[in-house]
Amino acid sequence: MPEDVLTATGPRAATEGRLSMDESEFVRFYDATVHPLRGYLTRLSGNLALADDLAQEAYCRMLAAAAAPADSDGRRRYLFRVATNLYRDHYRRARREGGPPRESREPVDGGVERRLQLRGDVGVVFDVLTPRQRALLWLAYVEGMQHREMAEVLGLSRLSIRPLLFRARHRMARELRARGLAPEGAPAGRRS
Amino acid sequence: MMRWRCSRESDTARAASAGDWPEGLRAHAAACPVCRDVALVAGALRRDRRYLPADPPPAAAGRIWWMARIRARRAAAERALRPITVMELAALAAMAPVAAGALASVPPAAAAWLAELRFVPAVTAVGGQAAVSAVTVAASAAGLAIVLLALARLLTRADG
Fold first, then answer.
1. 0.80 exceeded by the pTM?
2. Tens digits of residue pLDDT in A83-120
3. 69-128 in chain B: CB under 8 A from chain A
4. A148 touches chain B (CB under 8 A)
5. Contacts of A48 (CB under 8 A, 6+ apart)
6. Most exposed of A2, A14, A79, A123 (fewest Cβ within 10 Å)?
């Protein structure tokens, strides 16, 4: 097979069965994004095994998509968007079938210690939030995304992000305080 | 009424996420209700990162890339075969009335024989050849129209 067939990228490539990135480019992108994406999906779904499945599927779809952006930041947002949509589909399907929409937190290799280790305070508090609230808080305060970027990832209007984020944050803060997980007085951290 | 925005919200979020507070911002965050929530939530999420799995994910990048490639090739093959499938369906649609017409217009002797075998209703055997021929022509015309429509759609899609 000629080399250009293996490496060609872009919309035409995707419609001809080729991918939006060549392998070395994808490996670099994957190394830079897999841990953030895995963390996001683990907190969104509450299940590490499901997060791994969704992440793998999100990468596959991004590679096959003719519309995937060419720049690194755009690709990252696109990947998070695909992953969010995949989780949303999974959540809706689980609800329709009467199963628990919030997955059990049991990881593949089991064990109470491992489960507790992955749970953490935020894991406990995230249980009471809606999937959209979890996604908003994670993208804003862990990924450090701007409102415009969050709107792109979540498929919402930019103007709706601020009130939605405010409500999610307020609810999480209330839950943290109710569980005694908020430090008293000034915010913790080192002074610069 | 509760305040729901503060001009220093972004600075507070950055400081709480990094765990590094510039002079003055900490005092502001302690006093401002909006920034207090931002600091609490962003700080909790920062601490939460250590609970997340740091082990390598089960699927390596190379495996995902090859999997995506196989899928893309399969999808491309399906796309390439789609016009052939459409043509096959159109051909079947065209053939069905022709076959029905041919069966309906068999010679009277053969029709009588078939009627004895209960393959064709007796009415076909005893007459009405003109009506049968009209049905045959109409059915064939309909089949031809379906084929032409399918071809036109295929050509339009190829141009688009």
1. no
2. 999 999 999 998 888 766 555 444 444 444 444 445 66
3. 69, 71-77, 79
4. no
5. A42, A107, A108, A118, B53
6. A2
Q: Find the closest chain B residue to A30 by CA distance.
A: B61
Number of folded domains in chain A? 2
B54 touches A at CB < 8 Å: yes
Side chain identity, residue B86: V
B150–A contact, CB cutoff 8 A = no
SS3 assignment, position B65: helix
Cβ-Cβ contacts under 8 Å, B73 against chain A: 17
Mark yes or no for CB contact A60/B79 under 8 Å.
no
The domains of chain B are located at: 9-51, 78-159
Q: The domain containing residue A26 runs over which residues?
A: 1-104
Distance CA A185, CA B27 (A): 10
Query: Do A153 and A98 sit in the same domain of this protein?
Result: no
Question: Same structural domain for residues A2 and A36?
Answer: yes
